[in-house]
Amino acid sequence: MSTAALVSTADASRVRVVGGGPAGAAAALAALAEGARVTIEEKSVFPRHKVCGEFLSPEIAPILDELGLGGLLAASHAARITRAALHIGGREKRFRLPETAYGLSRSSLDRLLFEAAQRRGAAPNAPRARLGAPGAAAPEPDFGRCSAVVIARGRRAGSGAGARSGTRIFGFKAHHVGAAARASDDAVELYFFEGGYCGVSPIENGAINVCGLAPEALLRARGFRPDALFPPALVSRLRGLERSFDWLLTGPLDLHGGLHARSDAYLAGDALSFVDPFTGSGILAALLTGRLAGRAAARRLSHDRYHAECRRVLRRQRDVAALLRDMLRARLSASLVRWIPGRLLYQLTRPAC
Fold this sequence. Notes:
- The chain is α/β, with parallel strands linked by helices.
- The chain has helices at residues 3-6, 22-33, 60-66, 72-75, 106-120, 216-221, 232-238, 282-299, 303-329, 333-339, 342-348, and strands at 14-18, 37-41, 55-56, 79-88, 91-103, 123-124, 148-151, 169-177, 187-193, 196-202, 208-215, 242-243, 248-253, 266-267.
C-alpha cells in the first residue's frame, strides 16, 4: 500500500515549501503525490531569467516521469543535446553523451514546474507567487501549523562572501541568437580560460545559452563584461551571434562549501549544497533533492535521516568536482583532456540517482 493511502485526509501532512524553483517545485509535487497538503512560497514573478547553465542531464527525464511530468520536455520544445566538447589550454576533446540530454531556459523550466505544482494543488502563500499577477493578493490557506518545512530558496544569503575581495567568484549568463547558433546545435561545449570557464549549449527556439564563472578581479578589470575574458576559440564560436539581453551576473559563489543541514527543515537544491556548475548537473541535483525532500516532509521522516541520504546521493559528484577543480587550478588541464575519457568524466560528475 502506498504511503499516500496510509495518510488520511484529516491527518494529511501539511508541508510548507519555501522557494518555487526546480527544487521547490519538485518538493511540492512529491509531497502532493504522498497526500500532503502543500503551500509553496516564491518571491519572484515567473517567467524570469536566472544565471544557470540550463543543461538538463539525461537522468532528469525519469525524475520528471515520476513527478507526473513526462511530457514536459517535448511540450517545451527543449533542445536535444547528444554531444559534448571540452576546450582547455589549446586542446579539445569531443565525445558523445551516453544518453540524450536537453537544453531548456530557466525562464521556461521554472514557470512550467511551478505551474504544474499549482495545478496539482500547491497553494501559493505569497502575493508574488501568483503567475502573471505580481500585484494580486493570494488567499492565505488555513493550514494552521505546518508539520514540515522544505527550504529550497537557492544559495544561502552571504555564501561566498567571506572570500577576499577580488578573489571572489561570480557567475554570468546571456542568451544568444542568430543563424550561427545552429552550428553545433546538439552539443554542449565548455571553454576553460585563466581563472574561469564558460559553457555554451542550445536551448529552446534555436537560441544558445552562454554561462560561466570568473574571478571578481578579472571581471572588474574588464568592466564586468564577461565576453572580454573569452579565449579565441570561444570568440570564434560566438561570432555572428547577438545577445538577446544584457549579461546577468550573480555572486559571490561558494564553490567549497559543504552540504548544509538543519534540525527543523529539509534543505534542497542550492540551499542544501551548491553544485559546481561545470559538472552540468545542478538542475539534476535540484530536482533529485527536491523530490527526496518532498517525500521526507510528507512522510515525516527525521531531518537527520533525510540529510544523510542526500550526502550519499551527492558525495561522488562533489568529490569528483573538487578533484577536477584542483587539477584545473594546478594547471593540469592538458592532462585532463589528454588522458581521461570524456564519457568517464561526464559519468563521474552525476549524482547517484
